[in-house]
Amino acid sequence: MPYEVEYVIPFEILFEGSFRDTWEAKEAVFTNEAAGLLKLLEIAVNANELAEEYCNLDRGQGDVHVFFDAGKEKFLLFDLYLGHTDQHNMIVLAGHVPCYMEEQMKAAMLAIYNDEDAVPKSDFSEYFNNKLLTDIDKSNYPRECELYYQKIFYHD
Questions:
Q1: Of residues 31 and 119, which shows the higher confidence score?
Q2: What count of other Cβ atoms lies within 10 Å of the Cβ of residue 17?
Q3: The pTM is what?
Q4: 43-68 core/surface letters (b: 16 or more CB in 10 A; e: else)
């Protein structure tokens, strides 16, 4: 069985400094913790593109972006939906890895989750039943979120 983990955190926790300032200058940089997670999963995510996607959202918009490793056995999910009443720029960060990577994945995800600036945040949820794999099935999209129909995008 795979190991999966997800939680809700403020988007800016993933970036050094003010992501709103840095993405406009095309200088957005992931924190060491976020970069370490991407390295562990062997997944490439462009920090500027992710920040730009989020910063250009209007309230009540935002899609799901799933980034896969080359072998498609690992993935990282960013649910960028920005709710109408969200005052903390919250996103869902979730990951799926083979069971042999459970401890490394848990440590990498906790490193981001335990950041002292990561408030508010949701519970740290772990799964061993392919919940996330089921959640990202394209047949579940578009998915209604308030008045928006959320799309899913896969990135290799």
A1: 31
A2: 12
A3: 0.92
A4: bebebbebbebbeeeeeebbbbbbbb
